UniProtKB/TrEMBL annotation:
One of its GO terms (biological process) is proteasome assembly. It comes from the Eukaryota. Pfam families: UMP1 (PF05348). GO terms for cellular component: cytoplasm; nucleus; proteasome complex. It comes from Suillus placidus. InterPro entries: Ump1 (IPR008012). This is Proteasome maturation factor UMP1-domain-containing protein. Keywords: Chaperone, Proteasome. Transmembrane segments: none annotated. PANTHER family: PROTEASOME MATURATION PROTEIN, PROTEASOME MATURATION PROTEIN UMP1.
Length: 138
């Protein structure tokens, strides 16, 4: 956890130039860096980078505010609780839902598509006993 109060992830624009992949003659070195294409030079734009790091940045800001308000033990305790809850097993045959982790992460008051469509493609299990036999290979 690095101390930061950022709400939005920083922009890290990757600019590709011929000087990054140039050999001794000043030309693109294909044997070392592969075939040169527009797709490899523009991969990972600013917007894509911000979207991928959005949750991490928001969580980091929340943990820093907790540390400033309640001391360094508060975020450590929260991180420890998250780790314990994320590794706890679930009952076989029942739909897998980690509501404890959602509460600790602050996602209990938001609605995502996964809240509605998770597990709908297979339907509810017919019997808990059959599911446990399948899992335990009996």
């Amino acid at each position: 956890m690095e101390p930061s109060y950022r709400i939005v992830p920083p922009s890290q624009i990757k600019t590709a130039s011929i000087s990054d992949t140039a050999g001794s003659l000043g030309l693109h070195d294909t044997l070392r860096y592969g075939i040169r294409s527009i797709a490899t030079q523009t991969r990972g734009g600013e917007f894509e980078n911000r979207i991928t790091k959005w949750e991490e940045t928001q969580d980091n800001a929340r943990l820093n505010m907790l540390a400033n308000l309640y001391g360094p033990s508060a975020p450590m305790r929260l991180l420890m609780e998250r780790q314990i809850v994320s590794t706890s097993p679930h009952m076989p045959g029942m739909p897998q839902s980690n509501i404890h982790l959602d509460i600790l992460m602050g996602r209990d008051e938001t609605l995502d598509p996964t809240d509605f469509f998770l597990g709908m493609e297979s339907g509810p299990p017919l019997s808990v006993h059959n599911e446990m036999e399948k899992k335990l290979r009996l």
